[in-house]
Write a structure and sequence with these properties.
Elements (H helix, E strand, L loop, with lengths): L5 H6 L17 H13 L5 H7 L7
Length: 60
């Protein structure tokens, strides 16, 4: 059994998944701020590419 499926199997919900909201982890805020700064300064990227680079879906 995969280490990612044991909880769902235990609870009778085989499609259950867990995920982490990395934006809510305060310890990663410096890295996140650096990423946003680099992406904002990248004039060669389109708006959609910038959104994708920071973890949002493309809107174009």
């Amino acid at each position: 059994m995969s280490r990612y499926t044991w909880l769902g199997a235990h609870l009778g919900e085989p499609s259950l998944t867990l995920s982490i909201d990395l934006d809510a982890v305060e310890g990663l805020s410096a890295e996140r701020e650096a990423l946003w700064s680099r992406v904002a300064a990248a004039d060669f990227l389109t708006r959609g590419e910038k959104r994708e680079a920071v973890g949002y879906g493309r809107d174009d």
